[in-house]
Amino acid sequence: MHFASPASPRDYLEMPIQTLKVGALGTHKTIGLAKHAKARFLMASTSETYGDPLVNPQPESYWGNVNPIGSRGVYDEAKRFAEALVMAYHRYHGVDTRIARIFNTYGPRMRPHDGRVVSNFIVQALKGEPLTVYGSGEQTRSFCFVEDEVEGLIRLLMAPNAEDVHLPVNIGNPHELTVLEIAEKIIELSGSNSRIIFEPLPEDDPKVRRPDISRANQLLDWSPKISLEEGLERTIDYFRLKLKNTE
Ligand code: UDP
Prior knowledge:
The chain is of the alpha/beta class. It has eight helices and nine strands. Helices cover about 45% and strands about 15% of the residues. Helix 6 (about 180-190) packs across helix 8. Bound molecules: uridine-5'-diphosphate (UDP).
């Protein structure tokens, strides 16, 4: 299972060359190893392959709307190259490959300073600091609890070898909400007095994102089970303990 890459926008903006290298050269090395060992190979791809999508929700058949030379392009294009490489190794060398397009995922054990929206907002809410909404907060995301995500990934890895399992599969939660709504929900569930402030929107920040999971549903008999409320409560509990222990 090849998951190596920075995946938080903050991280890949700080490590642009490393992100390109691990997605391109790292995938080449690991799939070469899988070919040699006759191993099954699962590559962690991303909803970023759809860029700033012009269709919503995004089915796997959508080719995306990516700015190759924008600051996010280092992640998006490395993952798109990795998908092309994996498909070529499957078609040309017969490697038993899988491609999971992972959408926004959250849960316990995220780093407090990961930079992504759910961990940022929870840490800010628990410390009584303002929640930093980028742009107007009208952009949307769809958040999958980590246990659901892992279950989908394992089902894809374990699915019997058949022609249609090699094509990309979206693994994410289709419950879509605006960034402002997620901020309000986190304030409410954590019982925080924090207010919301607005900061500039990062370059090429996608305006909408929501997976079409019909393929995962049919192929893997999978759909997410954990509600946003339950997932957020469990994540807030984790961060409450974590912050207490690091005080
Ligand atoms: N975001 C925000 N405040 C933050 C962090 C992120 O408003 O403190 C927004 C960000 O601009 C994006 C969304 O939340 O629209 C999700 O950002 P994240 O970095 O979690 O991942 P992305 O989905 O962009 O890869």
